[in-house]
Amino acid sequence: MVGNFFKVEENLKWINKQQERFLAHIKEKISNKREKLLRTVFSIYPQIATERFKRKNITLVHNDAHVQNFSFPKDSENQKSKAILFDWDFWGSGIGCQDLVSMIGFWQYPDYRHLIEKDLIKHYFNLLLKYGVKTYSWDECWYDYKLSALLNLYRIIRRWTVNIKNWWFDLERILLVIRDLNCMELLES
User: Fold this and answer.
1) Within 10 Å of residue 168's Cβ, how many Cβ atoms?
2) What 3 state SS string does 122-186 have?
3) Residue 40: what pLDDT?
4) Would residue 128 be called left, alpha or beta, if left means φ above 0 and alpha means ψ between -120 and 50 degrees?
5) Hey, is 61 helix, strand or coil?
6) 134-162 burial string, b = 16+ CB within 10 Å, else e?
7) How far, in Å, CA of 158 to CA of 167, rounded?
8) Which of 150, 145, 124, 4 is nearest to 64 (CA)?
9) pLDDT at 117
10) Other C-beta atoms lying within 10 Å of the C-beta of residue 125
11) CA distance 68 to 114
């Protein structure tokens, strides 16, 4: 899979082939409850995501935002020095919260995530308002963050298919995010 992994329609075809292989691979290693959760997400999420991408408020996303993909200035007091985000292999269009889930949900352990998560999302939302976004509510932003957490299950499959060794720990962390934020409620409506 080359280029923008998160082009929804194009990449769902690829991921649909991989998800059954993935589920067969982990079947003996997960509970029936987790298998049911994964199957539910994989069967319902594509329709919800497709509908979400038809609405406004789509933006440029990095799709692999984590601290190892940032270069930070030595002089943090210098207002002209800024952090630089690199490794744009998976960039594309999406919802801004995709990168927030990558940075916060996917890479932080629960205790720390609980301390920072909602405040960081609020800060992001307030910056959107400050820089002129007028047609995006806090409820929509929080919905997008939770929806993006579900999207990260597909990232796990991608990591598994290219033999990234720590995909199992990533799966555990994102399942905790999904549980903690009650993301499955998005699939129930």
Assistant:
1) 12
2) HHHHHHHHHCCCCCCCHHHHHHHHHHHHHHHHHHHHHHHHCCCCCHHHHHHHHHHHHHHCCCCHH
3) 96
4) alpha
5) strand
6) eebeeebbbbbbbbbbbbbbbbbbbbbbe
7) 9
8) 4
9) 96
10) 22
11) 21
3-state secondary structure of 16: helix
* Region of poorest pLDDT, from 1-10, 47-56, 92-101, 129-138: 1-10
Helix (H) or strand (E) holding 46: helix 32-54
Encode pLDDT of 98-128 as tens digits: 999 988 987 888 999 999 999 999 999 999 9
- Show the DSSP H helices in 55-137 as ranges: 97-100, 110-130
- Rounded (5°) CA angle 10-17-39: 100
